[in-house]
Specification:
The protein has 93 residues and is mostly helical. It has 1 helix and no strands. It is 85% helix and 0% strand.
Length: 93
């Protein structure tokens, strides 16, 4: 069976069509991957953002706890000095 020019053109068009479909599939796959990555990044950024929002509150809480602890230490030192008046505490410079 001999091929005609028209048959050869149809075969070429068929190959181009198959190549085009393959390219479209690859493009769609890449689009889906990009969308998935974008969603993952957005969710991670949201989590990081929410953690950063909580940091000032934690910092303030830590400062108040530290302030209370220093006050307690001061009161306890005063109580020790009242109970032991003969011993004077030496401060370091």
């Amino acid at each position: 069976m001999a091929f005609k020019k028209e048959d050869n053109l149809e075969i070429k068009h068929g190959f181009f069509f198959l190549k085009y479909i393959k390219t479209l599939r690859e493009k769609n796959t890449l689009k889906n991957e990009v969308e998935t990555l974008r969603n993952v990044i957005e969710s991670q950024l949201y989590k990081t953002f929410m953690e950063k929002l909580e940091e000032p509150a934690e910092l303030e809480k830590t400062k108040t706890e530290l302030k209370r602890a220093r006050q307690k230490i001061k009161i306890l030192k005063e109580m020790i000095q009242e109970n032991n008046p003969s011993k004077k505490s030496k401060k370091r410079k």
